Amino acid sequence: MTDFTPDDRLVEDSYPVTELPLCQLRLMDDARYPWLVLIPRRPGAVEVFDLDDDEQHRLWQEAGLVGRALKEALGGDKLNIASLGNLVPQLHVHVVLRREGDAAWPGPVWGQGRAEPYDLDGLAAMRDRLLAMLEGIDALRLG
């Protein structure tokens, strides 16, 4: 996993949380939604098919496990998992916990209003909560 660098826009719009076996896990800087991004640490990967079969399986496994933990820990009405990449071509997967009545409900979160950045205390609290949530998922540590 050499030469991996997250796209500059992902770095600008999010904060690192932890490293999973395949992906770097980041928190989007928008306090309106619990919104995570998984970025496979594979240089040059743009599409899911740029990963080998095992890595493709691992990507969706990590997204599903993180999403389940997020929904169980924070509650919510719907979990959105998506890989778009129209603005940022580097392969990445969004995991967004949605609640009825949130700022974009029922539409997609992209392009809805202005992001509400975390303040330092809110960011630290959310990151700590995410790390605690992930500690219980042994399957994430399996490589």
Name the poorly predicted regions: none
Number of strands: 5
Q: Which structural class fits the helix and strand makeup?
A: alpha+beta
Average predicted confidence as pLDDT: 93
In spatial order, strands of the major sheet run 1-2-3-5-4
Radius of gyration: 14 Å
What's the short story on this structure?
By secondary structure, this protein is α+β, with helices and mostly antiparallel strands.
What are the key terms here?
five-stranded antiparallel β-sheet; HIT family, subunit A; 20% strand; 4 helices; 143 residues; alpha+beta; HIT_Hint
Explain this structure.
The chain has 143 residues and is an alpha+beta fold. The chain has a single domain, classed as HIT family, subunit A, CATH 3.30.428.10. It is 34% helix and 20% strand. It has helices at residues 8-13, 53-74, 120-135, 138-141, and strands at residues 14-19, 23-28, 35-40, 78-82, 93-98. It has a five-stranded antiparallel beta sheet. Strand 2 (23-28) and strand 3 form a beta hairpin. The longest helix has 22 residues, at 53-74. The mean pLDDT is 93.
Question: Topology of this structure?
Answer:
Blueprint: H1 8-13, E1 14-19, E2 23-28, E3 35-40, H2 53-74, E4 78-82, E5 93-98, H3 120-135, H4 138-141
Antiparallel strand pairs: 1-2, 2-3, 3-5, 4-5
Organism: Halomonas koreensis
Keywords: Methyltransferase, Transferase
Enzyme class: transferase
